[in-house]
Design the sequence.
């Protein structure tokens, strides 16, 4: 296990983690099941062990619109914020209640979805406007050639956009992946952020891709996340490795602090 010392060097917010129990119902299109739980208590303990005060829960796609455990966890801890999965037709009063419980956005996990919705349709424009009214964002997991058109369709919408996992590049392509390049281009609208998260999916090139992202978009558009508990990761991957990848990608302590401040503003409003 990789150990990281020096509290001043560490991020203040882990912007990407998942929580769930084994009793939660799987969605009909779940891409995998879960063998063991990822409890909110364990996530908070992991944050404490690495001296990270705040965390953001990314809705796990395996459970679809079952958001109850996330909402319960957000209500119980002021250290947490989270995203949910909901239909675009969700009642705006429910969205407002979720916002009051600590929900900051809606997650679209579309990397295995064959047909994507028309984001310029009246239904989605209404949904995106309602999200913007509540100061909530959309969080997108999609990559390759398909991410660019989605981000382009969102370029003039009022809601903020967060792109997951560096734009979900294939490890063999790295920064040459169209998804990474589309994510970099999208930040020009000043309403888009890109997460350095799921480092384990990139292997040894993770710090290189992270450094390239930072160089391209700057500290005000980059967020750091671990992707705890590392679903489908290689055996033995430890939280400290995700932290160390961030330190390797961003060696300047001032830039690391600026990235933390970006996350605090976006998710916690300060």
Sequence:
């Amino acid at each position: 296990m990789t150990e990281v010392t020096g509290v001043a060097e560490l991020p203040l917010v882990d912007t990407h983690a998942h929580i769930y129990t084994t009793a939660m119902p799987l969605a009909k299109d779940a891409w995998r099941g879960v063998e063991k739980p990822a409890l909110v208590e364990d996530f908070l303990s992991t944050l404490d062990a690495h001296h990270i005060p705040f965390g953001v829960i990314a809705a796990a796609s395996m459970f679809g619109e079952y958001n109850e455990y996330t909402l319960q966890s957000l209500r119980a801890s002021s250290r947490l914020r989270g995203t949910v999965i909901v239909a675009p037709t969700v009642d705006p009063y429910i969205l407002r209640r979720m916002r009051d419980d600590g929900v900051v956005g809606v997650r679209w996990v579309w990397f295995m979805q064959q047909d994507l919705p028309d984001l310029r349709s009246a239904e989605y424009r209404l949904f995106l406007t309602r999200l913007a009214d509540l100061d909530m964002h959309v969080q997108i997991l999609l990559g390759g050639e398909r991410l660019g058109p989605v981000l382009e369709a969102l370029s003039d919408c009022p809601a903020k956009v967060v792109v997951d996992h560096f734009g979900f590049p294939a490890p063999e392509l790295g920064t040459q992946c169209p998804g990474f390049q589309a994510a970099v281009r999208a930040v020009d609208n000043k309403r888009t952020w890109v997460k350095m998260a799921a480092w384990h999916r990139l292997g040894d090139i993770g710090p290189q891709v992270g450094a390239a992202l930072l160089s391209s978009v700057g500290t005000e558009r980059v967020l750091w996340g671990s992707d705890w508990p590392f679903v489908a990761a290689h055996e033995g991957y430890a939280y400290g490795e995700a932290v160390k990848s961030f330190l390797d990608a961003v060696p300047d302590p001032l830039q690391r602090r600026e990235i933390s401040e970006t996350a605090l503003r976006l998710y916690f409003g300060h």
About this structure: Residues 93 and 247 are 41 Å apart (CA to CA). Confidence is low (pLDDT under 50) at residues 1-5.
